Amino acid sequence: MGIDGEPLMNRQFLLIRRPQGEPVPADFQLVETPVPATPPGGFVIRNHFASLDPAQRGWMDPHDSYMPPIALGAPVRAMTVGRVHASDNPDYAPGDWVLGLNALEDYTVVDSGRVDLLVRSGGFTRKLDVSFVPSPTMFLSGFGAVGLTGYFGVLEALRPKAGETMLVSGAAGAVGSIVGQIGRMQGARMIGIAGGAEKCRRLTADFGYDIAIDYKGKSQRALIAEIASAAPGGVDMVFENVGGDILDAALMNIAQRGRILLCGLISEYNALGPVGARNIWNLIVRQANMFGFLVTDYIEQYDEAGRQMAQWFAEGTVKVEEDIQSGLENAYPAFMRLFTGANTGKLILKIAD
Ligand code: NDP
Questions:
Q1: Would you say residue 316 lies in a domain?
Q2: Cβ of 176 below 6 Å from ligand 1
Q3: What pTM does this model have?
Q4: 199 Cβ below 6 A of ligand 1
Q5: Which residue's C-alpha comes closest to atom 36 of ligand 1?
Q6: Where in the sequence is the domain holding 155, given as residue range(s)?
């Protein structure tokens, strides 16, 4: 119940139509309904912050990926951090901070079945110790799955040797800003690609990159040449976040026996038809290896890696950049920042103080 015995209301940002290409406001609807009663053995979360991720665009499509699509009429799935508002579960007390795969809504009801399932599967919903972080948002940015994408992608999948060259696209974003810093820590020569002069300034000033390349307004031919002049011997590793023309330019610069980690292909997520890398023949010429990467492969190691990130952050070795937008009612324009490139670092939506 809310104040004066009025029912507590829940605003939810629903997916009501599958986007055709770029999402438009009419694909979504903000509705308000009473918060259901706390289920037996379950609890209700007051969401404070939600992660806005490129992956959500994929979940809006009708086909299964590594997760089922968001059902039409359901709130948009999102990782959130929030506090337990009401509970019938002895392990979750009111006031506890929790992280979970929830939704863009004020309150998320977690029933006992879901608690069991999540605990058994290694758990997306879990309690958080917020005492050692400057803000609980860090569990959505540097210490959460997105920061750990950079961590595991570099340290476990690409494993740079000192002196090797790594090319990173989407370099000023949530993942890319962490990749630059961890790659540099390993002694790699880091080249970052991002859109615009200010992002490129941040790449070398703050995110560990030796060289920044601004791709905006450049032809693919110009981009290929610019990468070649930054890495005359070719790039030993590519950490690919963008795909499309940028991946094609990377392919043309891959070194002999180079390795290309496909983390994401954001430039292709709103495409209406199939898009694809056209220069993959160069993998044959250079005997290079291109492979897919999913951070969830490392879920068992999240806690340990999160602690390592927290230590690096506390020592000042790793910076974590956040772009926090406010208000569930602004979910649509906030989400679109990922596709216009308005965000630097991890995009987060603040739902409540
Ligand atoms: P970012 O914070 O990097 O935000 C997206 C950025 O992508 C924008 O800021 C923009 O930067 C760039 N971008 C958007 N559209 C285009 C375009 N058409 N051409 C070129 N650049 C574009 O997002 P994340 O760090 O959260 O995610 C980065 C990538 O990693 C995504 O592809 C995502 O799907 C993937 N990912 C994969 C995971 C995995 O386990 N495989 C886990 C987490 C993320 P700019 O201004 O520089 O253009």
A1: no
A2: yes
A3: 0.96
A4: yes
A5: 264
A6: 145-296
